[in-house]
Model the fold of this input.
Amino acid sequence: MDRPEITQLLFHPLKVARNTPPAGAIDIDVPVAADVTIACRLYSHAPTSPTLIFFHGNGEIIPDYDEVGPMYVRENLNFLVTEYRGYGWSTGTPLTSTLLPDGNTVFLALKDWLAGHGYTGALFVMGRSLGSACAIDVASTHEEAIGGLIIESGFARTLPLAKVLGIDLAGMGIGEEQTFNNGGKIARIAKPTFILHGQYDQLIPLWQAETLQAESGAKNKELQIVPRADHNSLIAEAGPLYFQAIRKFVEKAAGIAPDWRQRRRQFKEQQARQSAGETP
Done:
């Protein structure tokens, strides 16, 4: 899987200089090997809030989430984006053989960093597109450390996706079990699982998400199909509902979802503030 004809089509790293984090965001650098450091950025709500450790999609970099991160913060969530080798200002060269080990190393380092800086909220792992492979691998390896798994535009089968990208893995004698094997791994994950997918995703068709849902080992699992969305437009199509759905899943999985009495009390308090002329 580290053959140049595979990695050249599989990875699309964009190198940029480190930018200034938005207000309230913190950069964290994680060493994963000699002279190889992975960049991460935490968009923080509060140390007691749940934290989503997020593996982004191919061709994306941390600054792409400088507008998205605060939207998670508005939903009372901490959002922690990680890079890959050779992406953004991370060092090294992306390889298939290091992608998943790096993901696990970064997860454990971020878990320790959060604990060391007083973050006590539940941990969730989330992956989008290529990042679904890292998220599923981390969840299957460190299930005891997470409250749940979130997958956006993810895939169950690597071989069909590779074919779409122009890579005939089967023709090279590579079987599904020798690839990321997302479907096989998600079957071993019992923690609550939330899968989001675009109705018209042409790169990773909807059947891939349906397969992940069917093969998931979680009793608490949900597949949310976003109408009209393709591979890259879930947030654009769903708008605030995208972040609200993730927040509701996280609250339920973490056991912090407000009951109807609390929601009614909050509603009455908000009405009272509005009647008094205060800003909601």
